[in-house]
Amino acid sequence: MPSDPAEPFHLLVRAARRAAHWSQSDLAAKAGCRQSQVSEFEAGVRGKVSRETVAKFAELLGLAAPVGDGVGDAATAPAAPGARARCPNFECPSNLPYWLGGELLFLPLGTAGAGTHCALCGEVLERACPRCGAPILAPGGCCGACGTPLVEVPEGAVADLRAWAEVRRAAAVELRAALR
Fold first, then answer.
1. DSSP conformational letter for 85
2. Which segments of the chain belong to CATH 1.10.260.40?
3. Considering Cα of 6, then 25, then 23, then 94, what sign does the dihedral take?
4. Is the C-alpha dihedral spanning 34, 36, 39, 44 positive or negative?
């Protein structure tokens, strides 16, 4: 599968890994590196993964290998002033599921923390849209620049989305109340 030159390679790796229903640990085991290296690479951190390992990611996921180190400039640029951090993990209690126009979206509750990893589930926090790279400046479930949902349920991960979302909503509301 050729890589989209308009999208940073580290984001293509994350999308392809999720589409294959592999965890970061699965990809790390297959590529011969640590899960933390996959996590940092997918977050756009330069220098944590060798070019040889990036080439293994490409081969394993059926992507065209990048010319450089595979990390795009948008993800490694300093966070925009006022940028919000959000957890991309759809199962994390820091994201409240809600329905809008028949589509399941997630509202970040602000409980993921301000560091590099989510305080609740450990996933690498994101401060930019996974599609266009625009900083996340306003609360909400979609990118203010391109409208892409900021958190998505991988296809086939949940059999009954409505029932799952109701259970998750109840759990997230309880957690938020407990954290106050």
1. P
2. 9-76
3. negative
4. negative
Going by C-alpha positions, the residue among 133, 117, 135 that lies closest to residue 125 is 117
Structural contact between residues 85 and 113, judged by C-beta atoms closer than 8 angstroms:
yes
Q: What are the structure tokens assigned to 128, written together?
A: 């930019």
**pLDDT single digits (tens) 16-59:** 899 889 999 899 999 988 888 888 888 887 666 777 888 888 88
Burial class (CB in 10 A: 0-12, 13-18, 19+), 136: buried
- Does pLDDT of 146 surpass 90? no
Look up the CATH architecture of domain 9-76.
Orthogonal Bundle (1.10)
Could you give the CA distance from residue 160 to residue 163 in angstroms, rounded to a whole number?
6
The pTM of the full predicted model, rounded to 2 decimals, is 0.54
Would the pLDDT of 71 be above 50?
yes
Contact 8, 77 (CB under 8 A): no
